[in-house]
Amino acid sequence: MRPTSGERAFGSINTLLMIGLCVVMLYPFIYVLFASLSDAASFIQHRGIMLRPAGFNLDAYRAVFDNPMIARGYRNTLLYVVLGTSINLFMTALGAYVLSRPNLYFKNAVMFFIVVTMVFHGGLIPTYLLVNQLGMMNSMWALLIPTAINTFNLIIMRTAFQGIPVSLDESARMDGANDWTILFRIVLPLSMPVVAVMILWYAVGHWNSFFSALVYLRDREAYPLQLVLREILIANDTDSMMTDAGASDKYAIGETIKYATIIVSTLPIICLYPFLQKYFVKGVMIGAIKE
């Protein structure tokens, strides 16, 4: 059937609105990119919308990559992301598998206490005291162990596991498989879209996390990249990255360094997301529809 004039007008308006929304969402990132590539003096003098770099210059990126804290922060963040996401996925899969079994005793009561933690939690001070008493202060375990399981992700993965036919479980048990074999040989391979979504959510969470490191870490050698970025952006700590600049140029160069640091810290996640995007909607729908 040919669309009516009203349907064509509706489609055109929707298209224009989506294009406008994309521009509004993309322009801040484009502005930061152009600012990081701009000449410091020209950028300070620029006013209004930026549609191209104000004098192409890579000095800001040279200063960023020459800063040892950036490289150290990258190394620490990659360690926290890989190790933390592995712990998150393993613990969440174990909890979701147990809670998805139909013969689990007191399953509703256990789920009630788990869901309650989404509304009520101990808070910062009790958590700090607990981490301190467990001897995890000033170590990476203070960043990884307290956040080993996210309740919302646990519920989504549990719901996805419940959608797997029980007959597969029964057939595997008749062949002598135990719960470990069923989880890692049957349940997880059949739930790869949800697993990909969990990896994305947990990895992005670890990559962007800075508050836990700010609270629990004292050794600057263990700082993640986001905490280094916070010092540069909020504490305005760019003087150590401009050893050759004069006093009059430090402010201008410092501004471009801030934008270059933002690009350097966000680029890996932006590059990773397209490879997991195809699983994203499917994984969320699997975890949201089946109850």
From TrEMBL:
InterPro entries linked: MetI-like (IPR000515), MetI-like_sf (IPR035906)
Gene Ontology annotations for the cellular component aspect, listed alphabetically: plasma membrane
Coiled coil: none
Keyword annotations from UniProtKB, A to Z: Cell membrane, Membrane, Transmembrane, Transmembrane helix, Transport
Domain ABC transmembrane type-1: from-to ranges: 74-268
Membrane topology category: Multi-pass membrane protein
Subcellular location: Cell membrane
Recorded superkingdom: Bacteria
Bilayer-spanning residue ranges: 12-34, 78-98, 110-129, 182-204, 257-276
Matching SUPFAM superfamilies: MetI-like
Major localization listed first in the record, in broad terms: membrane
Pfam family, one: BPD_transp_1
GO biological process: transmembrane transport
PANTHER family in the record: ABC TRANSPORTER PERMEASE PROTEIN MG189-RELATED-RELATED, POLYGALACTURONAN_RHAMNOGALACTURONAN TRANSPORT SYSTEM PERMEASE PROTEIN YTCP
Family membership noted in the UniProt record: Belongs to the binding-protein-dependent transport system permease family.
Protein name: Carbohydrate ABC transporter permease
Organism: Paenibacillus montanisoli
Taxonomic classification: Bacteria, Bacillati, Bacillota, Bacilli, Bacillales
